[in-house]
Specification:
13% strand; homodimer; 51% helix; Rossmann fold; alpha/beta
Chain lengths: 320, 320
């Protein structure tokens, strides 16, 4: 199919020079799974690995956007270039409303050193796991010092995002007690920092205590043992932002000292490479499909002549 | 790794004889991605393709469990063997509470011709798309006449489930108006029947009108054109169940007449075979990983020496 020509060297040069429109176009290439991405990623590769990637997740209503906004202000005050990637794991049933409050980020809309982008995962070849790391790579390669990936804690998404971040911040709010209860299973596995936002409300201290208790019961035994701090904030007033910034810096230092940063980045790169490889294999299967491969095997499965495993074996053999 | 020996022929024989515990063990094999599954699926293959697979989805609170319960009662009154698969796309954040009301299904807990099973998608190699079709295959092969797959409308799950069903029922309730609004995008693509439950509440007629209006705007142009009926129910009283049953039967007949049933089942088998093939390829990649393949390529990506696409090429080449 014919596609608009892309002048990759110029785009990458402009993105690295901090031109927001060039960054935007590169991320659009990611969203469209554009063939020029190969060339983009090859050009960006030497410039990546510098950004501190912070994952921010939490249930709807805990104040993710205001917290991101608060962090961006603090980072800009330190002169850092910041990228924000708001990933919306939206479905037909929940619609795009999750990002409706993106408007709160207007504080930074005119700052050329803040790049803000919403990304939907729907319809992607490999979903979140395919597109997000590549969008992160674009922001990293474009010279962002910090990239915040914000996602709503729904479905598997926050676990996936945690896998893509250097540091994962789990946001909670008082009065969402069942949330904390329900979250027990997975929350400790992914949180490097807990932030209890809206801490001026009743129940904030109870929520903090509950999380501390959970942490004390946890059995994280990483080298050097990182114990996630629990920080109270009132994001729309900026209260607590210094503590959060300190927590983030401390976690980054801890990861550098213990080698955890390298381990996490290696793990992330493995997942990214695998996702691209799987997408490529899936595309090949699609080509097989029109060429009768998968479809004829599947037809025999429907007829009960073949089981799906034997059919899959045939497909895999045809790929090789 | 050593696994418990599985006497597959005996299990399949017992499952086909309608022994619930044998069915349960087979689905557990699916959940565990047990190596014996190949043999299970080969043994079941000649017996599959008979069940009418009904997908039932809707937002939390619309009454999915009571509706399923109502349908099971009606199907049992007709002497049908029924399987219910409640798929929980739960995350660490939403916990397992979604299925807490499974207790309402106690009406049928002692009926040996009703097989009820909850399945979590979390942690699965290929998630929902890998495990659910195989669990359906087990229930189908075990002799269920109808299998209801119930899932909450969160994330991508209901679209995936719709892809696995012969007939998809979208459940709504009055007073969830925004739900209908927000859902517009995807709901029409997947619904073969709309059921407005809790129709004794205010606003039921308005909800029905809204859906009818949506349908009239839709542009579904399948052969013979199926126009989804909109049926009102009060599931906990059994009101409307006959209309739903008629709608389901009519849809099945329509699919048989138009060839749509074959098309859907072929599409489903293609997806199932692809999911198994991708899982197999992913496993091979994991083996490569320990053998230095993916990991060494990923390490060069982390170091900025290689872009992820070139790394993925190397991995794909190593698989062949």
């Amino acid at each position: 199919m014919p596609r608009r020509e892309v002048d990759v060297p110029a785009l990458v040069r402009d993105a690295r020079a901090g031109r927001p429109r060039a960054v935007a176009r590169l991320i659009t290439l990611v969203e469209n799974a554009h063939p020029a991405l190969r060339e983009v990623m090859a050009a960006l590769a030497p410039h990546t690995g510098r950004a501190h990637v912070i994952g921010l997740t939490g249930s709807p209503g805990v104040g993710k956007s205001t917290t991101t906004n608060m962090l961006v202000s603090a980072l800009r005050a330190r002169g850092r270039r910041v990228g924000v990637l708001a990933v919306d794991p939206s479905s037909p049933f929940s619609g795009g409303a999750l990002l409706g409050d993106r408007i709160r980020m207007v504080d930074h809309a005119l700052d050329p050193d803040v790049y803000i982008r919403s990304m939907a995962s729907r319809g992607h070849l490999g979903g979140l796991s395919w597109a997000t790391p590549q969008a992160l790579r674009v922001l990293d390669g474009a010279g962002c010092d910090v990239v915040v990936v914000e996602t709503v804690g729904v479905g598997q998404s926050e676990v996936e995002i945690a896998g893509m971040a250097d540091t994962t911040v789990v946001l909670l709010a008082p009065g969402m007690g069942d949330g904390v209860q329900a979250a027990k299973a997975g929350i400790l596995e992914i949180a490097d920092l807990f932030v209890v936002n809206k801490a001026d409300r009743d129940g904030a201290d109870a929520t903090v205590r509950e999380i501390r208790h959970m942490i004390s019961l946890g059995d994280r035994t990483e080298p050097g043992l990182w114990r996630p701090p629990v920080i109270k904030t009132v994001a729309d007033r900026g209260d607590g932002v210094e503590e959060v910034m300190k927590g983030l810096d401390k976690h980054l230092r801890w990861m550098r000292t213990t080698g955890e940063l390298d381990r996490r980045r290696l793990r992330r790169a493995v997942a990214e490479v695998e996702a691209i490889a799987l997408a490529a294999l899936r595309t090949r299967m699609g080509e097989l499909r029109t060429g009768q491969g998968v479809e004829s095997a599947a037809a025999r499965v429907v007829a009960g002549e073949l089981d799906p495993y034997t059919a899959a074996d045939e497909v895999v053999a045809a790929l090789a």
